[in-house]
Write a structure and sequence with these properties.
mainly alpha
């Protein structure tokens, strides 16, 4: 019963989000304008979120995440890195670009970016580097980073 209610609430929430993000919505137009003409980092990030979650358009979302990252919104760097990481292959150009975005975000204190750098380096066979990034994430309070660091140190 609780599962059915939760599913129903989630369904209504998604409908609300979809309706509130309509293309012709004045608030969306204002946000896009703030990103495009004023280069406001938070507006660019929110447009990236809109395209990723509502439209399921990762290509356009990445454009907005990059804009927000370039304007100093570090979560935009992390989310852009995530899209590139998922799209790419080991040692490919997308992974290289993801690593750059993650590095910028990690240097600014975004623990998920540090954790993700650890994961990429681990998958590339760079265990010492991976441990270093997991340790950095751990110091920022990222518990999965602490667990990965301890596991790899054994």
């Amino acid at each position: 019963m609780i599962k059915k209610i939760s599913t129903l609430i989630l369904g209504f929430s998604m409908i609300f989000v979809s309706l509130s993000w309509a293309d012709d919505d004045p608030q969306t137009a204002k946000m896009r304008s703030a990103c495009d003409s004023e280069n406001k980092s938070a507006a660019c990030f929110r447009m990236g979120e809109r395209y990723r979650t509502v439209d399921r358009d990762n290509k356009t979302a990445l454009i907005f995440y990059k804009k927000s990252c370039d304007a100093g919104y570090m979560t935009g760097c992390t989310n852009g890195g995530n899209l590139l990481y998922m799209k790419g292959t080991q040692y490919g150009k997308e992974w290289k670009e993801a690593k750059k975005m993650y590095q910028k975000s990690c240097d600014a204190g975004e623990d998920p970016a540090c954790f993700n750098l650890g994961s990429i380096n681990y998958r590339e066979g760079r265990q010492k580097k991976a441990i270093s990034f997991y340790k950095q994430a751990c110091k920022m309070g990222n518990q999965p980073g602490c667990a990965k660091e301890q596991r790899l140190k054994r």
